[in-house]
Specification:
By secondary structure, the protein is an alpha/beta fold. The relative contact order is 0.17. It folds into two domains: 141 residues, Aspartate Aminotransferase, domain 1; 244 residues, Aspartate Aminotransferase, domain 2. Helix content is 42%, strand content 16%. Helix 5 packs parallel to helix 6, helix 10 packs antiparallel against helix 13 and helix 11 crosses helix 12. The termini are far apart. It is globular and about 60 Å long. The strands form four sheets. The chain has a seven-stranded mixed sheet, with helices on both faces. Strands 11-12-14 form a three-stranded antiparallel sheet. The longest helix has 22 residues. Bound molecules: pyridoxal-5'-phosphate. The site of pyridoxal-5'-phosphate has 13 residues, from helix 3.
Length: 399
């Protein structure tokens, strides 16, 4: 048995590190979810999560993984046979499409090379051609966690408005919420999908749907089968601060504390911190002479960075060397990029020295695994962090 001392470095882009304050907040006796004490917690978390989504609209909180929240988004507003437009930004888009297909939706899936955000030009062309408005929803992944490429949801909203298409805009911001700018109301998003274990710094187990008036109206008229995921049922109970079934009470205690932490730091500062860490990471990668998975300088994710290993080298072997030698977990390459890249998560509960530890582990691991690179990446990252420069929002990150 290998004995590890000190803290494990969990540098995967979700689940992310949970702050001690959040752990303490959850370390409580379970409580009566029909009692007066619970309603206070219920009202508090419903209000606080609205502030994070930047919405006045209902946010439905499910005891579920992000996948559950994906499914909820679809079953409430879509019925078998409905046409949806999606874009293959990476593995998470592929998985969301998989759900759509199981529900017999008619998916138009626009391919990309997994190294850019969504192909907005191709989407515009499909929407323009759809004169009869057969497309009922456009679904995009905001922060594609499998590649580290961002698609700006506001640009998709503008595109729908430009071509005057009434399709619902559904956005997976599971790894975006709490780490990248997000504006459910101001950006005209109809359904936002999120989860607890990424930027929200919680353990896995909560899924979220923020829903517009328009989406609620479509859901009311939608006869498709659903029960557990039914928005209206949850919204009705939420009026009394409660839920139609036993909620994940202790995770909700954690959520209340996590949002307090985000608000103490200030959401804008949280987003700036993620951009800064992303910039420092890229400075290191540049010196190492490696390539980022994302090829669009405007689309680099503030939350994680996908790093390609040179041809003939195995990213998973490199990850294994790092885990064995330095007790650090890095994200694996998913599906068609398996073995070709590793992912550095710089998301959630994180600071400069945690990033330095992470990048040092990567640089030493590159040496030990004999992955060709130049040394000095860590020093370049230090320069970025020492400067405490405010890294400007890229167009993609804001919009
Ligand atoms: C993590 C993630 C998911 C899946 O969430 P689960 O909780 O694993 O079901 C979906 N989309 C994105 C963008 C994610 O990062």
């Amino acid at each position: 048995m290998t004995v590890h001392t000190g803290r494990h470095f969990l540098q995967i882009p979700g689940p992310t590190n949970v702050p001690d304050r959040v752990l303490r907040a959850m370390d409580m006796p379970t409580l009566d979810h029909r009692g007066p004490e619970f309603a206070e917690l219920g009202f508090a978390v419903l209000a606080s999560i609205q502030r994070v989504f930047r919405t006045k609209q209902p946010v439905i909180i499910y005891p579920s993984s992000g996948t559950g929240a994906w499914e909820a988004a679809m079953v409430n507003v879509l019925a078998p046979g409905d046409k949806v437009l999606m874009c293959e930004t990476g593995q998470f888009a592929v998985l969301w499409r998989g759900i759509a297909e199981k529900f017999k939706l008619d998916v138009d899936f626009i391919p990309t090379d997994w190294r850019h955000g969504a192909d907005l030009a191709a989407m515009e062309q499909r929407l323009t051609a759809d004169k009869q408005h057969k497309i009922k929803a456009v679904c995009v992944v905001h922060n594609e966690t499998s590649t580290g490429c961002v698609t700006p949801p506001l640009e998709v909203r503008k595109l729908l408005d430009r071509v005057k298409h009434p399709a619902l805009l559904m956005v997976d911001t599971i790894s975006g919420l709490g780490s990248l700018e997000y504006e459910h109301d101001a950006w005209g998003i109809d359904v936002s999908v999120a989860g607890s274990q990424k930027g929200l710094m919680l353990p896995p187990g909560l899924g979220f749907n923020a829903v517009s008036e328009k989406a609620l109206a479509v859901a009311r008229a939608n006869p498709a089968m659903r029960s557990y995921w039914d928005w209206q049922e949850v919204i009705n109970f939420n009026k009394a601060g409660t839920f139609p079934y036993t909620p994940a009470t202790n995770l909700l205690m954690g959520l209340r504390e996590a949002v307090r932490m985000l608000e103490e730091e200030g959401l804008d500062n949280v987003f700036a911190r993620h951009r800064r860490h992303s910039a420092a990471t890229r400075a290191a990668i540049k010196v190492w002479g490696l390539e980022t998975q994302c090829l669009d300088p405007n689309a680099h994710s503030p939350a994680l960075t996908g790093v390609r290993v040179p041809e003939g080298h195995d990213a998973d072997n490199f990850r294994k060397v790092v885990l064995e030698n330095f007790d650090m977990s890095l994200g694996t390459g998913l599906n068609k990029v398996k073995g070709k890249l590793f992912r550095i998560g710089h998301i959630g509960h994180f600071n400069d020295l945690m990033l330095m530890g992470t990048l040092s582990g990567v640089e030493m691991g590159l040496d030990l695994a004999k992955v060709p690179h130049r040394s000095g990446g860590v020093l370049a990252a230090m320069e970025v962090l020492k400067g405490r420069d405010v890294v400007p929002m890229s167009k993609a990150a804001v919009a």
